[in-house]
Amino acid sequence: MDSFMNLAKQGYEAYSQSQGGGDSDARKTGGEEYNSPHNSGQQGGQGRPQFNEDEVVQTAQNHGGGDSSLFSSALGFVHQNKSQHDEPVDEEAVQSAHQQAYHEGGAGNLDASSMGSAAALQTLKKFTSGGGGGGGSQNQLISMAMAEAGKLFDQSGGASGGNKQDAVNGAAMTVMKLLVQSKFSSMTGGGSSGGIGSLLSMASKFA
Q1: Model pTM?
Q2: From 6, 55, 57, 76, which residue has the greatest number of CB atoms within 10 Å?
Q3: Can you tell which superkingdom this protein's organism belongs to (predicted)?
């Protein structure tokens, strides 16, 4: 019954507990215990997902989401707000926004940031149903989420608050949060593929 976002948060909480100090072993599990003190301690900096900006912008443009400056600016926004990467995603709000945008036709009633989160969730659902193509790389995931946010904004005739850039920023930040937080629950997966694999596995459980 748990959604992928809830699972991502659980993974992050387990990681946080295992990082809480040498004597904090109440909730440790084997994989996290062995991986987190040394290897995962570096996740806060260089362990962040790294994107090929040119590839991301080009892919987003190819998906018809808007001008390249929208996507470049969104990537800049994500990198400049690293403190937000570890903040839990508001699961209920994102699911509600997605329902409103994609099932009720009411995307125009959402603020731009919520619209972006809904687009990110829609993109994840496409990836898990085999519609992502290209193996589901991190670059492609964030590209398609931003493009989807741009298209949703245009199709809806705008948002209740905020502009198209806010919508694209919202999609990019939602993807980054989920990538960062899902990596913590799959430390033994190895490299970026472990993070994206874990994330898509979580998303496949989302009904």
Answers
A1: 0.69
A2: 57
A3: Eukaryota
